[in-house]
Specification:
By secondary structure, this protein is mainly β. The chain is built from one helix and four strands. The chain has one domain. Bound molecules: zinc ion.
């Protein structure tokens, strides 16, 4: 699974990806950049929808 990393300014593979909910009740995938460990978010998606 890939997400845009603001620190690398590139799309990076995400590690430790997990489904969570925002305060507004929207799905969000949270993980970490494999290169710099910055937190990555994919808002409005679930892991099941990404497969
Ligand atoms: Zn990064």
């Amino acid at each position: 699974m890939q997400a845009y990393c603001v620190k690398c300014r590139e799309k990076r593979d995400m590690t430790n990806a997990r489904d969570e909910m925002t305060k507004n009740g929207k799905p969000i995938i949270k993980g970490s950049c494999t290169v710099c460990s910055t937190g990555l978010n994919i808002i409005g998606k679930t892991m099941a929808a990404m497969k």
